[in-house]
Request: fold
Amino acid sequence: MARNSRTDWSRILAPVLLAIIVVAVWETAVRSGAVSAMFLPAPSDLIARFWLELTQGPLLDHTWQTLIAALMGTVLATLVAVPLGYLIARIDWVDMAVTPYVTASQAIPAVAVAPLLALWIGYGLTPIAILCAVVAFFPMLITTTIGVRALPQDVLEAARLDGANTWQSLAWVEAPLAMPSVLAGIRAGVALSVTGAVVGEFTMGGKGLGMLLTLFRDANDTEGMFATLLMLVILAVGMFTVLRVLESLANRRQRRTSSDMRQQLDAASENDQVMTVPLVDAAPLDR
Reply:
């Protein structure tokens, strides 16, 4: 117990200590003149500028636009990737037909897809959300497929022995067991969707952190660019952390579901053994 406690604290303290060292060296390098503040603002100046943009500037409004686009893209990608990943895992001909095209699509960069979406759909929130979905789609599909294929067969057999039909097995057994893998893919997709939103705002305009980065770049405002990048990091890490918590809860449910179904399978096996024990021949009666 003590060793596990030390390990948990080490996982927290190690990145915090590294961040403190990096920030201290960064601040010292800028304040001493070794690095020009024109190219790399000091952390203290960056925090001050970030707070100014957050409270008095347009940073918060642009953040909401990027967040909405990223969430819309994540939801859209989930609605397509999760069912398709399940079909690929369960139906061989779907796997053979779809997988080569999905793999080939990853060779096309998002920055090349954005102008096509603008040409086909136009400008605004919708094409940016679709671009986010395109970027987030692949990791969701892969993790869903792997998660479904890795489901324990003995647990699925226990559900069938319990009388569950296909839909009941999917809803009450397969979905809870595969949920950690699905959420892991969504967690990766969320971070990528933020990147997709920024790329879309770069190429298709509108409001958002990508547009704000463009404005600060054109004005040669390094502090403003770093403040916007800091908000992007906070946005991605926040969404990632929320899904990580949901994934932990899903892992607990998965372990509980697996344990319950295995207990039912063991009970069914014991009952079968009792039913199949041969009866001992009774001693012949004396005549």
Remarks:
- The CA atoms of residues 213 and 225 lie 6 Å apart.
